[in-house]
Backbone:
């Protein structure tokens, strides 16, 4: 009975909000170091080959891979161009009663491609604007 009262008291204490939680606000400029602009992203992205594929969900059923058509890249291709974007993934799966195995495979961290895509768009926009100015100059000479 004593433990039950203690448990209820702790639950009420936490529910009412009497407990103070201290959170530390981290400054992004201190947290991130060696900050550098991404350069030549268009050239890097041109070396990648986007693909569509299906996972072999029958052979690797225990991994619960998504079914149907997928969009992505071959990790081996990405690793040769952007080694930091191709990562090793692992997944634990059951092979019997109280027995598990770990499957390891290379995977592309697609989210890491977003800053490269933004940088490439910015590079291309600069090229477009330079070409537009050049066209205007040529038109003015006529």
Residues:
């Amino acid at each position: 009975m004593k433990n039950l009262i203690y448990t209820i008291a702790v639950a009420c204490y936490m529910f009412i909000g009497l407990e103070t939680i201290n959170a530390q606000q981290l400054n992004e400029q201190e947290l991130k170091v060696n900050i550098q602009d991404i350069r030549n992203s268009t050239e890097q992205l041109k070396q990648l080959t986007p693909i569509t594929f299906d996972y072999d969900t029958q052979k690797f059923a225990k991994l619960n891979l998504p079914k149907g058509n997928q969009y992505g890249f071959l990790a081996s291709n990405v690793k040769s161009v952007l080694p930091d974007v191709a990562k090793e993934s692992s997944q634990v799966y059951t092979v019997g009663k109280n027995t598990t195995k770990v499957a390891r495979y290379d995977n592309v961290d697609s989210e890491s491609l977003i800053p490269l895509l933004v940088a490439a768009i910015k590079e291309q926009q600069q090229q477009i604007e330079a070409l537009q100015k050049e066209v205007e100059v040529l038109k003015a000479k006529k």
About this structure: Strands lie at 51-53, 70-72, 86-96, 99-108.
